[in-house]
Amino acid sequence: MFPDPLNFPGGTAPMDLSYGPEYEAFREEVRRFLSTHGPSAPRTMRLRAPETIAWQQRLIEHGYAARTIPKEYGGYGAEPDILKSRIIAEEFARAGVSAGLGGQGISMLVPTLLELGTPAQREQFIRPTIEGRMIWCQGYSEPGAGSDLASLRTRAELDGDHWVVNGQKIWTSTAREADWIFCLVRTEPDAPKHKGISFLLFEMNTPGIEVRPLVDMTGHANFNETFFTDVRVPRTQIVGERGQGWQVANSILGNERDSLGNPNATLARLHALMALMREERIDGRPVSDDPVLVDRLMRLQGQIMAMGHNDLRVLSAKLGSADDARLARMIIKLEGTELRHALEGLAIDVMGELGLAYEDHPLLRDGGSWQSQYMYFLGLIIGGGTSQIQKNIISERGLGMPKEPKYPAGV
Amino acid sequence: MEFGLSQEQRFLRDSVQRYLSEQMPLDRVRAFADGTDSTVARAGWHGLAELGISALLLPEAAGGLGLKALDAAVVAQTFGEHVTPGPFLGTGAVAAHVLGATLPQDDPLLAELAAGKLIVGAALSETSGAREDAQITYQATGDGGVLSGRALHVLHPKAHQFIVASRAGALHLVAADAPGLTLTQTTTIDRTRPTCELRFAETPARSLSDDPALLASTLDLARVMIAADTVGAAYAMLQQAVAYAQEREQFNRPIASFQAVKHMCAEMAAALEPCQAMVWYAAHALDALPEEAHLTALHTKAHVSEVGTRVAKTATEVHGGMGFTDLLGLHYWFKRIGFNRQTLGTPDLLRRQAARAQGLLASGA
Question: Using one digit for the tens of pLDDT, what is the confidence trace for A287-309?
């Protein structure tokens, strides 16, 4: 029997949605920064561009990027504070100003190194990564290892002081731009599949690496295929012990799943869709007067509201409420990505045949963002743990249902 | 920042749940539904009154507990979870809200209401899409006023008094034995919650309010309570589905190990979990966020009803043929959710209102 959702412990304080005076003062401070410095922020954060690195540096100095990274590694060195981080995200989004660089190096590798890296690795990698001078890509998925990631077959064998890596990765975003890769490889071929993996770091200009752009349904190469042939990696460039790569990778995977269903971004898209419906006309009448399309909009608004409230509950749980909101967290990736995909799809129906327009079509609306996001979010429904894998997680870890019996190996 | 239930609200929920588990188990509900014991609902309400439920939303000056919509939502959710018959919606929520705001605080009716002795029915359905051309009109006379017309789907046929909404958006109080009032009990799909039709022929009525804002806040409150009830009923169905799937074996394994069944349960949980937060937020908005309260209440009842309907269907399917039987009793929750969906505004009607409240459908479509 799963933990009774009607009987989780309640909090100790009554409902209170305000952040309190200390935090409202902090919000004012962020707003002052944005009104002073916001106009000088670059419009797009092109990787490695001098203005990108300068803006990132200014954000770190004020504690708006790399906020909780220790000072000794080039961060701002603040204590983790979920509400302050949230206020920063809210205010930068409201002002339409870049809140700094993201990417898998900053969001995934840096937290991993802080938790499991050696002092030398932290010294070498964290500062240039958070400053935007060192770009990373992630080598996890393989053509034969998607949902069943632990079955990955890219192998690394010790040869003197080097690992020799052979195999292939797929879905390596930023592989063309990256200086380094963090990569899961099989180092113990005789161990059970989860215990034979190691977490290696190596430079992308090492001989034997070939990157091929992978054009996806949006028409762009958002991802790549990356091939390794006798790539020699110094044996010290491993995070954690040999065979512990699976645990190293999983120490931060949950962060990625949370971020894929961002309710603030979805709410901004809902408002854009409402604006579109007021502007678009069918036979001279605004779509915002069409009862069928408006009903579809209202359905989505109700769902988006519910997800926003769910997000408040999760925030409260992260702040230490007695309600741990376990199930409420587990469903975010599944519900958030499906909802966003449906919202982008409604905008395309709102446009009717104009919804077919793409790229340089003269009647293209909103830069084609509805069409490309509709496709991109189908990618996100699949990536980062497919909706079906999410449902396995919810039913097994959330509801306590048994795993599917294993198919015998080798059949 | 705190989003969720306080310790006091948890105690309130636990005490109501304990009472319902001990005093109102499914066989008592069944006895009420099949007519073998018509006292169950009344007896249950008296027991709940001892826990303070009948006084919950009444102001302290009127002998009530002066608690808030969020406290009431916590209670409503436990009623849905236990498919509890009784007059909470009309009496504990609507009457406490309306009479507490309109009668003098020393009116003896309020003391009786707080004590659980006064049962009040609610005739509000014509505000949410009148059918059969039913409508109520009020006419002032020398010594008060009279109601004429017809009200359908009235809650709590055994009530002593009824709160009646007129076509003009005013609220009135009518005694069940008032002259010119004819009451006909009507059977609904949910036999734990009978309704009635009221016919008024120049029936004397006490005028409570002609402020449309009071009617609007009453409907908002009632709709959030109904949504909370649905969330409780839907969680109960999900829990039963998961438990049944773990017991039931086919093809030499528990059906809970089949991915098809697991995914049905995961989909129910994923849709339902945000509804819990939504009901809490909507109730809190009634208490503390007046600008958001109305739109949130409309969306909450609409969305929770849609999710509830899906959970009711899917949880029944997980039970296979057993889910379709009377023996298992799962259908009481199915019908509870169905009743809640139809009453005081279907999802379609509420979404249309939500659209209009935001300036959409401006041409009157």
Answer: 999 999 999 999 999 999 999 99
**Residues of B whose CB is below 8 A from A81:** none
SS3 per residue for A400-411:
CCCCCCCCCCCC
Evaluate whether B59 touches B100 at the Cβ level (below 8 Å): yes
- Give the up-direction half-sphere exposure of residue A130: CA atoms within 13 A in the CB hemisphere: 29
Query: A80-86 long-range contacts, Cβ below 8 Å, gap at least 24?
Result: A82/A315, A82/A318, A82/A319, A83/A19, A83/A23, A83/A319, A83/B1, A84/A23, A84/A26, A86/A315
How many Å separate Cα A143 from the centre of its chain? 21
User: Which H or E run includes B243?
Assistant: helix B212-247
| CA dihedral angle for residue B334, residue B337, residue B342, residue B348, rounded to 10 degrees | -110
Closest residue in chain B to residue A333, using alpha carbons only:
B270
Token look-up 């100095």 returns A61
Up-side HSE of residue A137: CA atoms within 13 Å toward CB?
A: 23
Reported as a pLDDT band with limits 50, 70 and 90, residue B73 is: very high
pTM (predicted TM-score): 0.94
What pLDDT shows up at residue A3?
45
Q: Which residues contact B270 (CB under 8 A, 6 or more apart)?
A: A331, A334, A335, A390, A391, A394
pLDDT score recorded for residue A13: 75
ipTM, two decimals: 0.96
The token pair at A395 is: 């039913």
B255 band by pLDDT with thresholds 50, 70 and 90: very high
Return the closest-CA partner of residue B272 out of B207, B228, B325. B228
Q: Which residues contact A71 (CB under 8 A, 6 or more apart)?
A: A77
Flag if B361 and A312 touch (Cβ within 8 Å).
no
Q: Where are the beta strands (DSSP E) in A251-372?
A: 281-282, 285-286
Contact at CB, B266 and A17, closer than 8 angstroms: no
Asked if A335's CB is within 8 angstroms of B242's CB, the reply is no
With beta carbons under 8 A apart, name residues in chain A contacting B262. Answer: 391-392, 395-396, 399, 401, 404
Where in the sequence numbering do the catalytic residues of A fall?
256
CB crowding B196-234: b at 16 or more within 10 Å, else e: bbbebeebbbbbbbeeeebbebbbbbbbbbbbbbbbbbb
Rounded mean pLDDT of A264-269?
A: 87
* Angle value at C-alpha B336, between A7 and B9, nearest 5 degrees: 30
